[in-house]
């Protein structure tokens, strides 16, 4: 075997391999050398494959051919037959894309959770900041706290529609202090969840702000401190009312109408929702309508004290409807309708069906009543409020057997015990035939018993329907 070589290249310290160059390609260099290797014909099969590569040695370019041998693995460069594409280094998503994906996943999680609570996309759009609340850190702790207080899960949907900001609140810092403050206002623990369900916005109020001033003002005009808890339980919206803009103007207007301040305080104790009647939007227009329908101005304080709801309903259509109905029953003069309203303002809310049944009874029964029983309706319109089957008909039968002729007031305006006593009379005294006495404003200001009637009860606005 013949070997020719030249000395001039020492052991290279760096080899950069480029497999793309063609085999046996030589480049001119400053060092000219050749190396000829001769091998037996069977050497290639026994020693391995020949790998061609292009090397750069210490800044010089040359070409060489090397034999990879299984006996010297440490000095052999193995190249994969498959080339690695440079783009494979960026196969993973960028940090920006990963961040966007995380944000999208969080939003989806929160939207799904809110959907389970009953909220719609429209609800979320009304307060899109709700999507900034973490399900685990915000939503679940707040809802768990409300549930432990006694707020019913069935009310969560409406609760969150009205006050979605509660999901941003801290249970310890924001919610618990408000609940403690409500308990300090003598609202019973069992009533706290009902207060929150009725008025969830209260959880966002400052303790020393509107809540404290509204309560202080009511106590100042005569609302009993012991009644405050019951008042707020019935109508917690008072806690959000500004004294200067809402409560004080309302109280002063009624006082100017002729209702004593203490009587106003008693009305608020019994029906605190009257504070929610808009003074300009509802109260003043309704009183003007009463005057239009021949109610005397001097009677307005008595009417409001007897039936406070009359200043809060859509009154004018009701007045028109009831006047037409009564005129269809009896020959009623316009001023007579004003008298009917003065004597019984609740008539504006009576059911037409009930009134027609009562009137039909009067038309058919006249034997036990005075000669003109329908005319007696003007003097005693409260007739329409008595039960036809439970009270009116049974008493009418008894009086008919006695042969008495009486007024509607004598027949009905007494208790069952008093009625039995009246039946023992041989004759009916004329003073007892007189109609029911007019409303006495002083009855509202009579001293009350020591016991508080602040137990929570739902008042029905449809008691006269």
TrEMBL record:
Residues 64-74 have a biased composition (Low complexity). One of its GO terms (biological process) is developmental process. GO terms for molecular function: nucleic acid binding. Residues 452-465 have a biased composition (Acidic residues). Keywords: Transcription, Transcription regulation, Transcription termination, Transit peptide. Residues 61-91, 436-465 are annotated as: Disordered. Belongs to the mTERF family. This is Transcription termination factor MTERF4, chloroplastic.
């Amino acid at each position: 075997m013949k070997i020719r070589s030249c000395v001039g290249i020492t052991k290279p310290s760096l080899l950069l391999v480029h497999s793309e160059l063609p085999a046996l390609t030589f480049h001119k260099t400053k060092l000219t050398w050749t190396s000829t290797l001769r091998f037996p014909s069977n050497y290639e099969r026994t020693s391995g494959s020949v790998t061609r590569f292009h090397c750069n040695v210490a800044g010089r370019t040359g070409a060489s051919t090397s034999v990879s041998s299984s006996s010297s693995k440490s000095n052999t460069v193995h190249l994969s037959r498959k080339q690695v594409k440079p783009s494979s280094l960026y196969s993973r998503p960028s940090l920006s894309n990963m961040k966007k994906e995380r944000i999208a996943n969080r939003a989806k999680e929160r939207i799904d959770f809110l959907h389970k609570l009953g909220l719609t996309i429209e609800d979320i759009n009304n307060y899109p900041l709700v999507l900034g609340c973490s399900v685990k850190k915000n939503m679940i702790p707040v809802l768990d706290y409300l549930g432990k207080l006694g707020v019913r899960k069935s009310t969560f949907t409406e609760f969150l529609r009205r006050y979605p900001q509660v999901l941003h609140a801290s249970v310890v810092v924001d919610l618990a202090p408000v609940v403690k403050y409500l308990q300090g206002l003598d609202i019973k623990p069992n009533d706290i969840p009902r207060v929150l369900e009725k008025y969830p916005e209260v959880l966002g109020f400052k303790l020393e702000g509107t809540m404290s001033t509204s309560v202080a003002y009511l106590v100042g005009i005569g609302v009993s401190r012991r009644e405050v808890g019951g008042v707020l339980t019935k109508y917690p919206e008072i806690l959000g009312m500004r004294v200067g803009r809402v409560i004080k103007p309302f109280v002063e207007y009624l006082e100017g109408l002729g209702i004593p301040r203490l009587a106003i305080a008693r009305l608020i104790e019994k029906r605190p929702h009257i504070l929610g009647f808009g003074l300009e939007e509802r109260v003043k227009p309704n009183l003007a309508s009463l005057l239009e329908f021949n109610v005397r101005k001097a009677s307005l304080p008595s009417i409001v004290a007897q039936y406070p709801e009359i200043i809060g309903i859509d009154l004018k259509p009701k007045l028109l409807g009831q006047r037409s109905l009564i005129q269809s029953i009896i020959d009623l003069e316009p001023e007579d309708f004003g008298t009917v309203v003065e004597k019984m303002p609740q008539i504006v809310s009576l059911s037409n069906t009930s009134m027609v049944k009562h009137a039909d009874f009067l038309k058919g029964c006249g034997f036990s009543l005075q000669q003109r029983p329908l005319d007696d309706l003007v003097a005693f319109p409260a007739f329409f409020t008595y039960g036809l089957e439970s009270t009116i008909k049974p008493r009418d039968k008894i009086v008919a057997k006695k042969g008495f002729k009486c007024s509607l007031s004598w027949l009905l305006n007494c208790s069952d015990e008093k009625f039995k006593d009246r039946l023992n009379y041989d004759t009916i005294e004329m003073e007892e035939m007189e109609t029911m006495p007019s409303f006495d404003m002083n009855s509202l200001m009579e001293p009350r018993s020591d016991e508080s009637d602040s137990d929570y009860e739902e008042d029905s606005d449809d008691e006269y329907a």
